């Protein structure tokens, strides 16, 4: 509600006006924007008598512009993509939204924004659509690839699908997950860069990503997460809160923010009310294509009315036209085959799509809507009605993975990963021939205070224990080091195809933390980040005809390995009761004092000696008469004597006599010094 | 017992000598203009039932943003996530009133430190500006000698401390040390500390840096209470002190003329159920002359310059030119500033004058250039002073 925000957002106020051309970044970069005023007029409806006059004015301006364009091509290359089609690659931006009805009557809304920046040799490049902060980040930290995700909730692989490209790419572990590939040769340099990168990202995205800085929180997997040459760093913060403050800076990377286009649908209370919420930033940078960033936001929403929903009901906002800077702006509705392949369509669509296509293998149907056609007067609103309520399920992973803790107490426990086969999903897998194997890769990072004993790995296949040698094809373990590094496990397993279930267990001891290392809410327990279970033999891909040019559907074509994240584990550790030490100290002190005092008494005290002393004292005591006399005399003389005694006794050591002596000596010394010098 | 007054006498004389030697090299305080505003807003409480502390902080955040401090100059520290907390019935929304008219969490909140990052260490690092090299700019308080800083803190506290996250405490000494360090590093011109916690007044007891005003919600031995409970949210949503502070600010806009004094007098102890405490003895300007927007807002001056990259001289000349065209309040403030610097000069001149006289007298009496003789005389005078002092004290 604030009138004044960071300088960027002053632009966002401008964005809401019908200006067609402006830059995405700081106002300083807005070189040559004054030339585009001519264009700005064209976008406004011209009415009445002023129309003619402005037409002539417009043509004059356009003429001026074109001549200018010929004379000063440098100026025009900044900021314009409508006129400057001749020059080499341009910065591009496209926005897409994919809606997908889920079998449990929820709706998946997947926002997909792509920005590309052509490669450039110069350091101080101007950007007009591409976010400058990201470009600087890539340059400074020499990032080849990076993915940052903020997730709240857990992707329900059972119901919402597991082996289609959307769920493999967008199912993310709860909290923050960050991984990056660097273009840096040495390991030390990569670590240092990673540390700086986490701080930069934490500043950019208002999150505590800087906690990934410490070497205890990130790891360098070689092949379990993504095959690499040791230049990958991976870190996860399972308990990081995800809220509005994270999406605000994320939206500021878009040229239109949330003021226009598809992003204007993002009503915060609606999207944070969802069952699952994952906001991602993925970037790739190479010399050939420059920098490409994909910003995606996947939300699973529950419509108020289960049988019928529309876009407006879901987001409480209407889509009134595209972001003027976007090259393409499309809304897709993807309907899985399993929802329509029944005898009758159980879904009914209201609204006319611009294009309807099926993917190559006929898994799903895509309805495409071009946002350009819609405006303030005619907002795009897709409505879907369920004609019949029934339970179907989407494509599953070959094995359903889940992870849990076993054991009790605060001393030790074990981690178990269970894999259950989902028979109905992929049939080719389940022939019982002996030569058929399914490969499963497990990647898990465990913080150092959960001390996993990797030699205790036990593997059960269909309930029977199996020798690890038979099942494990490849294994890479980096044991944890106390307060230095986490334990990393990368493991490739081979299971026979006919297997129904498998389980892995690993024992661990719980460590003790230093008193400073406990978080304020230590009693809540400690989170172990999700493990990643991937199936390298299975690839999720959907190929749509090339007639749809869409970065989102393009990404569907990639060779994405089917994978799923397991649950986050909550390990209760022994938490210190900070009042306890005080109790213990006071109690032991009391006991010790009592014991020690009585012991000293027993050992050292000589009762007979004391009695003798007391007797002798009594002897020395004056008799009754002299005592009386002295008392009387005291009374006669009164307190005078006492006070005199007191004052005498309280005479300080540094009396005036002493001081006088000191002064005298000092005077003599000074005089002597003076006389000796003058003579 | 008797040696004590003697000793103090001695100390006093030594102090006079010492202070005289210190005053000599003291440069005159440069009257830098107030040219920017910063705000550090801290909610130190974790856990859902402390919802109101976050609402307090966010209300202040909204207010200072509304009054013109940009997001990049606000350091917002929130110890827990209330807006997207699983217990929050209104996801991504935070209210400070049961009428739910104002969503404090809006669409444009930027939290700089959150969750476990809100620690005493980080708080002191922000104040003193001693960060690791990699800490981004958005997490730093980049104020300078022309900055007015608003420091707002809320949480649970007690006698001379404020709890952070239920595990750590910020003591009044820590705060005073940090402020002192800030002053020495020229990190602020004026600082307003506002604290809403139980026994808030005790937190200011150790402050000793000039240019600091402090407002606390309660005196020593008093509690600060919450204002009201929202049955829908399920917890108290705002504290009394902050509620009435906001009530005061809601009437204002960026160009309002209300003074700090009017803010201080707006607190009614019967409504607050505690006595608001102000510490103004370190602050030189009269409070009724200081507009609240000097701390809670940012009224920016536009300084037109002749060229795009002006030299210092050009900037100065135009600065004075625009000052004459300032608004009424600003002018009052500026005049006040000028007055203050004048009095400072006078007092300093007086001291220097006495010192000069004394030196001249000494030189005249001696009339010799020999330094040895001068030293001897100096020793002599010291001995004399010593005897006088002992004689006086005996």
Automatic annotation (TrEMBL), chain A:
One of its GO terms (biological process) is attachment of GPI anchor to protein. It comes from the Eukaryota. One of its GO terms (cellular component) is GPI-anchor transamidase complex. Pfam families: Gpi16. The chain crosses the membrane at residues 582-603, 658-676. Keywords: Membrane, Transmembrane, Transmembrane helix. The keyword Amino-acid biosynthesis does not apply. InterPro entries: PIG-T. PANTHER family: GPI TRANSAMIDASE COMPONENT PIG-T, GPI TRANSAMIDASE COMPONENT PIG-T-RELATED. This is GPI transamidase component GPI16. It comes from Rhynchospora pubera. The lineage of its organism: Eukaryota, Viridiplantae, Streptophyta, Embryophyta, Tracheophyta.
Automatic annotation (TrEMBL), chain B:
The active site is at 156, 198 (nucleophile). Residues 1-29 form the signal peptide. GO terms for biological process: attachment of GPI anchor to protein; GPI anchor biosynthetic process; proteolysis. One of its GO terms (cellular component) is GPI-anchor transamidase complex. The keyword Signal applies. Coiled coil: none annotated. The keyword Signal applies. Pathway: Glycolipid biosynthesis; glycosylphosphatidylinositol-anchor biosynthesis. One of its GO terms (molecular function) is GPI-anchor transamidase activity. Keywords: GPI-anchor biosynthesis, Signal. Belongs to the peptidase C13 family. PANTHER family: GPI-ANCHOR TRANSAMIDASE. This is GPI-anchor transamidase. It comes from Rhynchospora pubera. The lineage of its organism: Eukaryota, Viridiplantae, Streptophyta, Embryophyta, Tracheophyta.
């Amino acid at each position: 509600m604030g009138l004044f925000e960071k300088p960027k957002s002053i632009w966002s106020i401008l964005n809401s006006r019908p200006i067609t051309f402006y830059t995405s970044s700081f106002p300083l970069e807005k070189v040559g924007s004054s030339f585009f005023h001519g264009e700005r007029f064209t976008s406004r409806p011209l009415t009445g008598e002023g129309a003619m006059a402005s037409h002539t004015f417009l043509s004059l301006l356009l003429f001026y512009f074109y001549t200018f364009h010929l004379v000063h091509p440098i100026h025009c290359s900044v900021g314009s993509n409508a006129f400057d089609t001749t020059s080499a690659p341009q910065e591009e931006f496209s926005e897409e939204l994919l809606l997908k009805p889920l079998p449990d009557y929820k709706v998946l809304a997947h926002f997909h924004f792509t920005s590309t920046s052509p490669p450039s040799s110069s350091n101080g490049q101007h950007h007009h659509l591409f976010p400058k902060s990201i470009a600087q980040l890539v340059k400074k930290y020499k990032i080849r690839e990076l993915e940052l995700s903020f997730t709240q909730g857990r992707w329900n692989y059972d119901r919402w699908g597991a082996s289609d490209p959307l769920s493999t790419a967008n199912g993310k572990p709860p909290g923050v997950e960050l991984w990056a590939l660097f273009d840096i040769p040495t390991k030390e340099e990569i670590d240092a860069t990673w540390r700086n990168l986490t701080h930069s990202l934490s500043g950019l995205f208002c999150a505590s990503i800087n906690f990934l800085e410490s070497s205890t929180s990130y790891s360098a997997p070689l092949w379990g997460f993504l095959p690499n040459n040791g230049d990958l760093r991976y870190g996860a913060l399972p308990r990081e809160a995800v809220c509005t403050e994270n999406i605000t800076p994320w939206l500021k990377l878009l040229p239109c923010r949330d003021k226009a286009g598809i992003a204007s649908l993002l009503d915060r209370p609606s999207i944070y009310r969802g069952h699952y919420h994952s906001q991602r930033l993925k970037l790739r940078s190479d010399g050939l294509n420059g920098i490409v960033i994909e910003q995606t936001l996947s939300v699973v929403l529950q419509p108020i009315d289960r049988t019928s929903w529309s876009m407006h009901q879901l987001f409480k906002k209407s889509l009134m036209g595209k972001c003027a800077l976007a090259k393409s702006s499309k809304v897709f509705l993807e309907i899985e085959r399993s929802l329509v392949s029944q005898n009758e369509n159980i879904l009914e669509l209201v609204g006319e799509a611009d294009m309807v296509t099926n993917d190559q293998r006929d898994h799903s149907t895509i309805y495409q809507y071009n946002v350009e056609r819609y405006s303030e007067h005619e907002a795009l609103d897709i409505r879907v009605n369920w004609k019949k309520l029934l339970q179907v399920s989407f494509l599953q992973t070959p094995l359903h993975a889940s992870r849990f803790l076993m054991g009790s107490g605060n001393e030790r426990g074990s981690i178990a990963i269970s894999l259950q086969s989902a028979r109905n999903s992929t049939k080719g897998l389940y022939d019982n021939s002996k030569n058929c194997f399914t490969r499963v890769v497990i990647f898990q990072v465990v913080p150092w205070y959960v001390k996993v004993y990797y030699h205790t790995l036990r593997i059960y296949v269909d309930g029977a224990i199996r020798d690890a040698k038979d099942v494990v094809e490849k294994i890479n373990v980096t044991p944890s080091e106390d307060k230095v590094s986490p334990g990393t496990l990368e493991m490739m397993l081979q299971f026979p195809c006919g297997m129904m279930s498998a389980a892995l267990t690993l024992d661990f001891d719980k460590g003790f933390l230093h008193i400073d290392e406990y978080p304020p809410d230590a009693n809540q327990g400690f989170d172990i980040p999700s493990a990643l279970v991937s199936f390298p033999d299975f690839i999720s891909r959907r190929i749509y005809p090339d007639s749809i040019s869409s970065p989102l559907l393009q990404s569907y074509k990639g060779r994405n390995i089917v994978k799923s994240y397991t649950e986050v584990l909550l390990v209760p550790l022994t938490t210190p009761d900070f009042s306890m030490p005080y109790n213990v100290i006071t109690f032991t002190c009391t006991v010790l004092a009592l014991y020690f005092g009585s012991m000293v008494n027993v050992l050292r005290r000589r009762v007979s000696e004391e009695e003798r002393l007391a007797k002798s004292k009594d002897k020395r005591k004056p008799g009754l008469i002299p005592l009386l006399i002295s008392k009387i005399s005291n009374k006669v003389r009164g307190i005078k004597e006492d006070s005199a005694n007191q004052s005498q006794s309280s005479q300080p050591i540094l009396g005036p006599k002493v001081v006088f002596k000191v002064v005298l000596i000092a005077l003599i010394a000074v005089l002597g010094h003076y006389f000796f010098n003058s003579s | 017992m008797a040696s004590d007054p003697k000793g103090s006498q001695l100390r006093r004389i030594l102090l006079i000598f010492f202070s005289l030697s210190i005053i000599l090299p003291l440069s005159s305080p440069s009257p830098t203009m107030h040219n920017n505003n910063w705000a550090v807003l801290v909610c130190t409480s974790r856990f859902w039932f402390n919802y109101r502390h976050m609402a307090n902080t966010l209300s202040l955040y909204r207010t200072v943003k509304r009054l013109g401090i940009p997001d990049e100059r606000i350091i917002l520290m929130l110890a827990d996530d209330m807006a997207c907390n699983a217990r929050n019935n209104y996801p991504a929304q935070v209210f400070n009133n049961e009428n739910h008219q104002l969503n404090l969490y809006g669409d444009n909140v930027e939290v700089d430190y959150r969750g476990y990052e809100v620690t005493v260490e980080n708080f002191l690092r922000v104040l003193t500006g001693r960060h690791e090299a990699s800490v981004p700019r958005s997490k730093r308080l980049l104020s300078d000698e022309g900055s007015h800083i608003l420091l707002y803190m809320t949480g649970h506290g007690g006698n001379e401390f404020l709890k952070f996250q239920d595990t750590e405490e910020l003591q009044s000494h820590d705060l005073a040390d940090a402020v002192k360090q800030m002053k020495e590093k020229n990190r602020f011109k004026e600082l307003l500390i506002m604290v809403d916690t139980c026994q808030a007044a005790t937190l200011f007891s150790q402050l000793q840096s000039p240019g600091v005003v402090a407002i606390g919600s309660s005196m020593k031995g008093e509690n600060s209470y919450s204002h009201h409970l929202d049955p829908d949210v399920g917890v108290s949503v705002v504290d009394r002190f902050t509620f009435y502070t906001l009530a005061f600010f809601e009437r204002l806009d960026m160009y309002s003329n209300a003074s700090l004094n009017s803010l201080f007098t707006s607190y009614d102890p019967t409504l607050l159920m505690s006595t608001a405490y102000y510490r103004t003895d370190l602050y030189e300007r009269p409070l009724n002359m200081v507009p609240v927007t000097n701390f809670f807002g940012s009224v920016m001056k536009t300084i037109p310059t002749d060229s795009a990259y002006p030299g210092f001289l050009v900037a100065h000349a135009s600065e004075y030119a625009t000052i004459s065209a300032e608004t009424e309040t600003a002018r009052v403030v500026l005049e006040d500033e000028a007055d203050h610097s004048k009095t400072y000069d006078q007092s300093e001149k007086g001291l220097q004058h006495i010192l000069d006289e004394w030196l001249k007298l000494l030189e005249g009496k001696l009339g010799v250039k020999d330094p040895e003789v001068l030293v001897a005389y100096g020793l002599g005078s010291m001995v004399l002073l010593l005897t006088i002092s002992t004689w006086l004290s005996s």
